[in-house]
Amino acid sequence: KLGDAAAWGPRVATGFESLLNSAMKGKGAMAAQSGGDASDYEIARAVVFMANQGGGKFPEPPAPAAPAATGAAAPAAPAAAASAPK
């Protein structure tokens, strides 16, 4: 129940890591969210949002670091003219 401090209080008391673990792996009838359409970062942000609406004071999780550039150029796509029949 979003915003229900009485319902969220005991959950918030378990801490962010516990809440995130339950969301990622599932708990009871709640399906696991990890590996779905949302990234782990988006799931963590949702957990913080919902917990904070219920009285929690969790900070926003840090954004994941951008992948490092390798410096290698992407392979060129084959030219359409080269593969077209003559």
Tell me about this structure.
There is one protein chain. The chain has four helices and no strands. It is an all-alpha fold and 86 residues long. It starts with a helix and ends with a helix. The model has no long low-confidence stretch (mean pLDDT 86).
What are the SSEs and their pairings?
Blueprint: H1 5-13, H2 16-25, H3 40-53, H4 80-83
Helix pairs in contact: 2-3
Can you write the helix and strand succession as a string? HHHH
The share of residues in extended strands comes to under 5%
DSSP, total strands: 0
Sheet bearing the most strands, described? none
N-end to C-end Cα span: 65 Å
Gyration radius, rounded: 21 Å
Q: List the total number of helices.
A: 4
| Portion of residues within helices | 40-55%
Overall residue-averaged pLDDT value: 86
Which oligomeric state applies?
Answer: single chain
Unreliable parts: none
Which class of secondary structure composition applies to the elements?
A: mainly alpha
Shape: elongated
Keywords:
single chain; 86 residues; mainly alpha
Short description:
With 86 residues, the protein is mainly α.
